Protein 1
Amino acid sequence: MSNPNQTTVSASASPVTSISIHDRFRASKDASNLRHPKVLHPLENEGLRLLILENISLDAVATFRAQGWHVDHYAKAMSEDELVDKIGTYHAIGIRSKTKITQRVLNAAAKLLVIGCFCIGTNQVDLKAAALTGIPVFNSPFSNSRSVAELVMSELVVLSRQLFERSFELRTGLWNKQSKGCWEIRGKTLGIIGYGHIGAQLSVLAESFGLRVLFYDVVNIMPLGTARQVETLDKLLSESDFVTLHVPELEDTINMISTEQFAAMKKGSYLINNARGRVVDIPALIVALQSKHLAGAAIDVFPAEPGANGAPFDDALNPWASVLRALPNVVLTPHIGGSTEEAQTMIGQEVAQALSRYLDYGSTIGAVNFPEVDLRAITAEQTGNIRVCHVHKNQPGVLKLVNEALSPYNVEKQYSDSKGEIAYLLADIADVGARDLPGLKDRISSTDANIITRLLA
Ligand SMILES: O=C(O)C(=O)COP(=O)(O)O
């Protein structure tokens, strides 16, 4: 699971919050006080087509279909070649952690407007290339954090009681009752690397179980309960009985736990990884387990993972797979950290809403690779108003040209922001006749800074 600290949404900084919390609640008591928003739709994408992969919740599919959009829904991930072949006719794609959206896929995605990662991590998408193509990427920064935290709690007990060994032996007919090397988790130290939504949630659960909690993070974070932030990774490693990772996959985190870090861990300690496969150097983990320096490990994520159920987890996929599979007290699971009914339902709703808000209203609030821009709704009475959504290169002079194109109309409201090389402008303009629309769009999109221009009405 990625560290959601990387993708926090500064809702309070958004220009949407024009109604105070008092007014919202006051208005909700008397429905007649509320000004109903006009329902917007993309003007040119009446036949929006969505490609939904990796068994994403049917709730999400229902949300899209309820808008009249065409949805193709598949249980498995797609390879790069398959995507290159298929993606050209779709306006949106929904994926989880397996499908890779590379520059090559983006080059083939002639109509693509938006990408939804129905999970926390977004490392499977070339975020920069997507932004430069004018495509915002949305994820679900915390909806599966409880599921992951609960899985870690179970892994602590499973490892410290050698539960899988005993269960496996009994399933093969062998009675092997023993207490040697089996421990309570009460009073032990849990070291959490990455104190985002998952790490923090886990911290609270672990303390209620009687564990002492340390955490290491690259930013200073207020500890929950009596947890304590430590200054260095080494300190965390040398003091913890269990080390658990909750960081995103970034250049800086790849192989962050390798030979040196295993040596720094206490003899007899355990490693748990439900984050990303490449964060742990697995050949080095195998050495640490074989030498009995570590007493066990629980691994849910791998550098290479099969794209569909039923596919083998073998040496052709990861060269050390058979060695790892044969080690005692190693719990291997098929990337199920966020795989609960609750998490998948919440993620489905959250990301489906974000995609719909972008396609219908142009809102990029919550996008991980894009400036976050939104506007207060056009009201139902403002029938002649339309919304201009203009993604463009972040260079001088663009707004002048766009505002010249808008100058025959009254601009009711406008907001623009930039992130790196791209900028995004939303403008609501009044009394635009249907016959003006093609010309207006041509004028706005004719600058050499234009990336994508859409009109919503
Ligand atoms: O949320 C994440 O980042 C996860 O790793 C879960 O991935 P999944 O949706 O199970 O492919």
Protein 2
Amino acid sequence: MTSVHSTLTYWLVNHPKISNFTWTEGETFGSTVFFVSVVVSAYLSATFLLRHAMVSLPSLGPRILKPITAVHSLILCLLSLIMAAGCTLSITSDPTPRFFHAICFPVDVKPKGPLFFWAQVFYLSKILEFGDTLLIILGKSFRRLSFLHVYHHATVLFVCFIWLQTRQSMFPVGVVTNSTVHVIMYGYYFLCAVGCRPRWKRLVTDFQLVQFVFGFGILAFMLSEHYFGSGCSGIWGIYFTAAFTASLMALFFNFRSKNYVKKTTEMIKLS
Ligand SMILES: CC(C)(COP(=O)(O)OP(=O)(O)OC[C@H]1O[C@@H](n2cnc3c(N)ncnc32)[C@H](O)[C@@H]1OP(=O)(O)O)[C@@H](O)C(=O)NCCC(=O)NCCSC(=O)CC(=O)O
């Protein structure tokens, strides 16, 4: 058990590439406003154009689409597991006595080391998640190309960029919780793609909602530490994250109510 822990700690925290990682604006891959703006604009334009082009084109049949979807979901499920493990180990191995570095970085924190490494991997993984939209459009599953879906995929990249750019306190907790939820979510999508649709879809939505509520709890703690304690870095980014989290929470409550609560009420009325 100890050797598994030390091997994991080496490969996920202490490896020189990870421990010496530094986020430097303009030098690290993806570290400019130009990059993030171009990628998000390309995503939105491609979504719009492909969505309209597909109206007159045939959808990719399930025989082609399902295996690609399964591989894509499995890759993201495993990557999310690695990111959750890497970031958790980075938090617990943090040499500073303030364990809650996970929540509140000192104002003069250097954007260096494993926590920033995992935040960058997490940020770039959001580009890989654009593949979800492509698969939805190629399969002509337009019902699922919702405002929630496109808004989430486009905005989350900006949020992760701001986390890194402002050295935002609390992002390690965000990486751990969201990656953990994505292990379950992409696990669910993988099982759907291989034809074993799980019965716990509702639970996935509930987990997603819990992460947003939890995020607000951490946010409140961080703000109190910032204003009444010794100060936390990236405070303005926190307000942006709060607005994003609140908007997603509202969209997810709406999704939950439409997909589960109303359906259950209709079934009760019919029986
Ligand atoms: C249970 C949910 C995870 C998914 O709800 P859905 O209504 O989309 O689920 P569904 O039952 O229709 O999905 C099953 C279908 O998705 C296909 N599918 C499989 N893998 C996929 C992938 N990687 N991306 C998109 N679709 C995929 C399956 O083949 C299956 O198709 P078939 O039906 O043909 O067999 C829900 O909680 C949710 O997130 N809803 C919002 C929609 C969304 O876009 N979510 C992801 C981004 S938001 C997010 O990620 C928030 C967060 O950070 O937590």
